[in-house]
Amino acid sequence: MATDYDAPRKTEEDVSEDSLEELKTRQSGKQSSAVDVDETDLADGFELPGADLSGEELLIQVMPAQADEFTCFNCFLVKHRSQIAAERGGHLYCTECES
User: Fold this and answer.
1) Residue 41 has pLDDT above 80, yes or no
2) Residue 92 forms beta bridges with which residues?
3) Where does the source fall among the domains of life (predicted)?
């Protein structure tokens, strides 16, 4: 929306002079009583925690960690071995967790 910076600005006195009825008519014109979204349509897409998913089939192939990868003991993400920053107590930590 374009703004005319040369136009005179309202002072606090001008703003306080606006009548209550005028402000109500401006506000009521902006409101709409129509509801666009049906709540029951939205609820169909959500799965509840603890729902029985035994009949569902996994659509992606899960691969085990490769020889050049490790799992960070802090963030539990699988990373390339070039990102090993520290080894403490037999556990590997990535560069992001050690920074």
Assistant:
1) no
2) 87
3) Bacteria
Q: Does the predicted TM-score (pTM) go above 0.85?
A: no
CA distance 24 to 80: 63
DSSP symbol at 18:
S
* Farthest CA pair distance, the chain: 76
What is the rounded CA–CA span in Å between residue 40 and residue 51? 18
Written as one letter, the residue type at 75 is C
Cα–Cα distance, 6 to 80 (Å, whole number):
59
Read off the pLDDT of residues 56-77 as tens digits, 9 standing for 90 and up.
887 888 888 899 999 999 999 9
Residue 44's Cβ-side half-sphere holds a number of Cα atoms within 13 Å equal to 4
